[in-house]
Amino acid sequence: MTNTIKISPSILSADFSKLGSEVISLEKAGADYIHIDVMDGHFVPNLTIGPEVIKKLRPLTKKIFDVHLMISPVDNFIKDFADAGADIITFHPEATKDTAKTIDLIRKERKKVGISLKPKSKLDLIEKYLDDIDLVLIMSVEPGFGGQKFMPEVLEKTERLKEIIKNKKLNIDIEIDGGINFENCTLAKQAGANILVSGSTIFKENKGDLKKNIEILRKN
Ligand code: DX5
Ligand code: ZN
Predict the structure, then answer these.
(1) In this structure, which residues have their CB less than 5 angstroms from ion ligand 2?
(2) Whole-model pTM?
(3) Which of the listed residues 2, 3, 43, 205 has the most CB atoms within 10 Å of its CB?
């Protein structure tokens, strides 16, 4: 894992009527990744987009598509998201009967594997898989909606995860997602996160100045 901070803007806060140009604007504004939240109205109480939309966005940018799947059961859709152009595929362990099998399915598609933990989900759920994954996504809000308040209690879990990764000398990114703003981004970084997801802060602060907002999140 590098110490460089990466910013992964969530297009959940973008204008869905012009998603293509929003993605292009994020690239121009200096985004490292594009965070794509996929929701099924079942695993989480909200619906967003599926592989067809991602496929249409794919030719518009070379940026890494950081796809956060909040769908259950997840296995049957891994190939569709891989074919659509996802680079990182992140799933929730509660959305599969067999975490090891889901990891294998993503690996077979030669994509990076992420596992996401909801605020109340414990590290025990993923510890034995750490050797086989590339990223842990720590949710700092209950998954389902943008614009919620950051839950500081997940910082301790982030610190413990960072410690485990360090002790095992693993090369795993720690991404944090939900309610990230210009103040708590500092705490998230101090706790060990090296990828910050942000929807509302990037799209709404400073009258939607994407470049400025990405820069502040990176520097603060
Ligand atoms: C919530 C999503 C987040 C969300 C982040 O389920 O996973 O990616 O869009 O949005 P903000 O930054 O507004 O909390
Ligand atoms: Zn997300």
Answers:
(1) 37, 68, 177
(2) 0.97
(3) 43
